Amino acid sequence: GFKRASRIASLEISEIVQLAERAAVLRAEGRDVISFATGEPDFPTPLHVVEAAHAAALAGKTRYPATLGTAELRAAIAAINDVTAKEVIVSTGAKQVLANAMLATLEPGDEVIMPAPYWTSYSDIVSMAEGSPVVVACPMAEGFKLSPAALEANITPRTRWLMLNSPSNPSGAIYSPEEIRALADVLARHPHIWILADEIYEHLNFVPFHSFKACAPELAERTLIVNGVSKAYSMTGWRIGWGVGPAELIKAMGTVQGQITSGACSIAQAATLAALTGGQALLDERRSAMRARRDKVVRALNAIPGIDCPVPDGAFYAFPNVEGVLKAGGFASDADFCGWLLDKAGIAIVPGRAFGLPGHARLSFAYSDPELDAGLARMSAAVTARI
Ligand code: PLP
């Protein structure tokens, strides 16, 4: 019979995708389901970006691109990041940047420290690359942030990477320059550790954002910055992300990429170039729209008994503590609660366990106001009736 390779034996399709698919099935059965499960802006891709893609296709930019990215796009990303093009790789989404980095560097059993809550794919990508995720719980009382002491306590001789995500999916936490400095001081004492700073929500910030590299320039020769157009420019389907890091690492990641995709879609790269070099006013407009939604969602969640929702500083997720609901409603776990909410009220949200921090749930607010209003009202009614 069929047998999975051991490197993926423990992996499942992401719980986020599973929930979104279950919501779609219920909807196809005629149920009225509102899903807040997916981390995808509801805005359209900007028109000038779509037009650039069309023009690129008509101009014959339809051949295999260079493995590490088109010269034009790498140069543009290098200019924005104040590095040379050799320090840039363009991949099929930020997700592939992460996978390239892990496959290019991890030996079996190498450890990767990830503060929880973390984006679901971090642990799975590390596992797929035969590394060991080292999950460090960062509770709500600590702003969901990694402290220097917790970092220090989890370092071993086998630690290969620290994965840091600011602004964070799912918590919205943004590290201040002082907080980054404090972590950098620990890392300076452990030169065997590399830093993967995932800054894909850079432009979705409601407090000032500071890049890890800008705050810790002395660690640049072991820092990989990950970014992309999916979130800020509403380009999730175009599948373009990039990594900025030391040339040797980038070259090794290119070796992996060359055998997996041969490089990212040439037309999507032309579109990305237009996104990065065209007018940037849309970033402010979308940030303001998200901030208004954030305020509405946090207010509505905190009005539901048993739910305690801190204000996220960035990204587009609320990550409330739902332990009060679990206790009062007799739910066995956050997953039990989320399953009930979908079946009973037709609302899809993702249990905290998918992010390595149970007792919470993630609700994306990258949805329209009518959807948010209707969904939150329904969620409130269902929870209030149960507890
Ligand atoms: N990093 C984080 C923290 C994310 O939330 C996501 C998408 O959900 C990604 C990376 C991957 O983005 P992309 O669409 O560029 O693969």
Automatic annotation (TrEMBL):
What is this protein identified as?
A: Aminotransferase
**The EC number(s) this enzyme carries:** 2.6.1.-
What is a single molecular function from GO for this protein? transaminase activity
From the broadest rank down, the organism's phylogenetic lineage runs: Bacteria, Pseudomonadati, Pseudomonadota, Alphaproteobacteria, Hyphomicrobiales
Q: Which residues form the Aminotransferase class I/classII large domain?
A: 32-376
* Gene3D superfamilies, per database record: Aspartate Aminotransferase, domain 1, Type I PLP-dependent aspartate aminotransferase-like (Major domain)
Which cofactors are named for this entry? pyridoxal 5'-phosphate
- Its EC top class is transferase
Any one Pfam family here would be: Aminotran_1_2
Q: Which reaction does it catalyse?
A: L-aspartate + 2-oxoglutarate = oxaloacetate + L-glutamate
| Keywords assigned by UniProt, alphabetized | Aminotransferase, Pyridoxal phosphate, Transferase
Which family is it part of? Belongs to the class-I pyridoxal-phosphate-dependent aminotransferase family.
Q: Where is the signal peptide?
A: none
